[in-house]
Amino acid sequence: MIKLDVAIATHRPDGIRRVKAMQLPMVKGVRYVVSWQNHEGAPIPQELLRSDIKIARFSGKGVSANRNNALRHTSAPIVLFADDDLTYTPARLQSVIDTMEAHPNVDVGTFQYEGDNKRYPSEPSLISLHKPRWLSFTTFEIAIRSKCLNKLHFDERFGPNGSLFPIGEDEKFMLDAIKSGLICYYFPIVITSHTGPTTGFRAITDAKAAEGTGCLIRGRYPWSWPLRIPLKAYRLWKNGSKFGFCLLYMTKGAMTDCTIV
Q1: pLDDT tens for residues 19-44?
Q2: Kindly report the CA angle at 203 between 200 and 208, in degrees rounded to 5?
C-alpha cells in the first residue's frame, strides 16, 4: 500500500538527470511522482524505470503549474512536495509518514531541511496567519493530506515563470491553506537535505519579486501591512537588497489582489 507520494517537480532534460542523481531510496509505502516539464522528448534514464517511480511529462509553463501537474498524478493519502536537488533517506521519509499518521487532525505539516543554516522555531506549533518567529516556508518542507487537494492547489500566478510574480509559490500555498480553514502544523523534524541557499534567502533585485513579496505580506497581514513592509525592506537591506527599491515595489505589489484563486 502506498502511504506517501513524493511529488518532484523538474524541467528540461538536465532536470531528469538531476532526479537520477538523487538516487531515490526504495522505501516501503513510498512512491515518487515526477512531473517533467519541458522534457523536449528526451528518454527517461534507465535508473528511473522503477515500479516506485512514476514520471508524468508536462508541457505547461511555470513551476506552480508543474507542481499542480505532479499533484494530479498522486493518489497516496499523504503527499510531500519535492525538488530535483534534494537528498532523502528511508528514515527521513518514514518520519513524514509516522508524524502525519500520529497527528490525524493535521491537514498540512511543515518540517525542516538541512543545508543552508536556515533558522527554525525550536518547538512544534500550530500555524496561523501570525506565524511563530523564524518560521518561513520552502515548498519541499511541506506535506499535505491528499483529501485536502480538492480545495487547495498552487497559485500559478506565483513562482518562477508564474503569470504575475517570479517568487512566493510556497508562501502563497501556505497562506491559502490557512485561509481555507485547513489545520496546519509545524514539526521540528529534519526530512531532507538541500545544498546552497533557496530562492527565498537571496537578495531581491527584481521588481516583480519585490512586488510578489509585498502582495504576500498584505495577504497575511491585511491590516498591519503598511507597517510591516518598511520592516521587511529593512531586513532585506541587511541581506544585500536596496531599501528604497524594496519599499517602492513591495508597496506596489501590496495593491495586487492576493486572494485564493
Answers
A1: 999 999 999 999 999 999 999 999 99
A2: 75
